[in-house]
Amino acid sequence: MPQSGLLTGRVLFIAGVGAQMGAATASIAAREGAKVVLAARNRDVIDQVANDIGDAGGEAMAIQCDLTDKASTESAVSAAQQHFGPIDRVFYNAGFYDNDRDSIDVDEDLWQTTMDVNLNGALLLSRLTIPSMVEHGGGAFVFNSSAASLVAGQVRFGYQVAKAGVNALTRFIAAKYGRDRIRANATLPFVVGGEVGAVAGAQNCIGRSGTAEEIGEAVTFLLSDRASIITGQVIHLDGGLFARASWPTNAAPFQPPAPLKTSH
Predict the structure, then answer these.
(1) What pLDDT, in 10s, does the model give residues 97-149?
(2) Which domain holds residue 106?
(3) With 50 as the cut, is the pLDDT of residue 14 above it?
(4) What is the spatial distance between Cα 218 and Cα 9, in angstroms, rounded to a whole number?
(5) Which secondary structure element, helix H or strand E, spans residue 43, and what is its range?
(6) Separation between Cα atoms, residue 53 and residue 47, nearest integer Å
């Protein structure tokens, strides 16, 4: 690992670490000098990511954590601070999809789970980390939101509402705590495979879907001091999909992508 990077000296808490964007962001942030805390329910994934970071010369710790449970999250934050010191960077990457619900007549338990994972967990983690950031001179948040927070869809109603709340949380933190040197931004990634990914690649500006590593690079930059002027923003990371195309839902017909141009 380099002696000096974008996040050297920073303690990054990643909430929700899967094998794609969470793992990629953790590895890139560690490469850039961050001490990385990996918090998730799946112990196997976070242990593997922590081991990989350690093997590459970085610093990481894995904490099994239920982000919908206040006591579990409080314990994870406390353990992270005891091990690495004050947390000054947060990437909230947890997500839960209510894909099978296509009606306003929502299941109350499913609705609550959707809110708890996508929105309430983000709020709780913010409440637990902002006081320390204020005390120690600042910090930065990136919340993984979704384009579903901005456009209408025929399914995942609870997910749409929760992610819209994440956008509002982002703007509130940026406005309320900006003079305390705390920044907050939300990202709207589009990293998918299958038919929807093919539709996205056909309709965006670059002719393909993005990769988890590309999302991780963008998140790491937003968490760094290089992005010191960027706050309160909801940022598409989709290859320009929403710059030129409509939302590719299941109501949009599949269009075969044009072949990519190759350089000579």
Answers:
(1) 887 767 788 889 999 999 999 999 999 999 999 999 999 999 999 999 999 89
(2) 11-244
(3) yes
(4) 19
(5) helix 43-55
(6) 10
Taking a C-beta distance cutoff of 8 angstroms, is the pair 197, 120 a contact?
Answer: no
Q: Minimal CA–CA distance to 16: which of 34, 37, 35?
A: 37
Tell me whether residue 150 is in a domain: yes
pTM (2 decimals)? 0.90
* Spatial distance between the Cα atoms of 73 and 42, rounded to a whole number of angstroms: 14
Q: Is 39 helix (H, G, I), strand (E, B) or coil?
A: strand
Cα(172)–Cα(32) distance, rounded to whole angstroms? 28
Q: pLDDT band at 3, cuts 50/70/90?
A: low
Strand order in the sheet with 234-237: 59-64, 35-40, 11-15, 89-92, 139-144, 182-189, 234-237
Residues carrying an active site annotation: 159
Helix (H) or strand (E) holding 12: strand 11-15
The domain that contains 101 carries what CATH number?
Answer: 3.40.50.720
